[in-house]
Amino acid sequence: MGVATQISLEQYLRHPTEPESEYIKGEIFQKALGTKLHGRLQGRLIRLLFRWEELGLGVTIPEQSLLLSADVILIPDVCVLTADNVEVGVVTQPPLLCIEILSPSDRFAYTARKCKQYLDWGGPTCWILDPEAREAWVSDSAGLHPVAEGGALEAGFILLGIDEVFAK
Length: 168
What we know:
The chain is α+β, with helices and mostly antiparallel strands. It has a single domain (33-165), classed as Alpha-Beta Complex (tt1808, chain A), CATH 3.90.1570. It is built from four helices and twelve strands, in the order αββαβββββαβββββα. The chain has helices spanning 9-14, 36-54, 108-121, 162-165; strands at 21-24, 27-30, 59-62, 66-69, 72-74, 78-81, 97-101, 126-130, 135-140, 143-146, 152-155, 158-161. The protein is globular.
């Protein structure tokens, strides 16, 4: 096993990576490459969440870099920022909602840990969606729990039915 190269946050921010990579305690972690199902679900979520943006309740952003601490930058697949967030570039205020969409190479345990990091940072809710299995989980102050078939995903004022999210 090789030794990981440590870089500073400043180095990470000066040299953006493609595809997107997250920064955790001096190491760079490449996000899993998305699939067609992943991309289609990401696009659908942005369209569905836009109804709350039109009401002035939040701003929906895909692939937004979030600075959780001086040594952690994570990038959820979709997030909903507060309507009054005017930050440009890396966001330093917790979003209303972070959404992680599983790709075939993603490990659920790793993704669940990311959701816990968002919550520990001050974000109230994180969703995990599996487009292949058409399953969803909500992570909030009550813990991580699956959403029943025919149920709904909730995050404060946001409510989306599972059937609407996974519509073909």
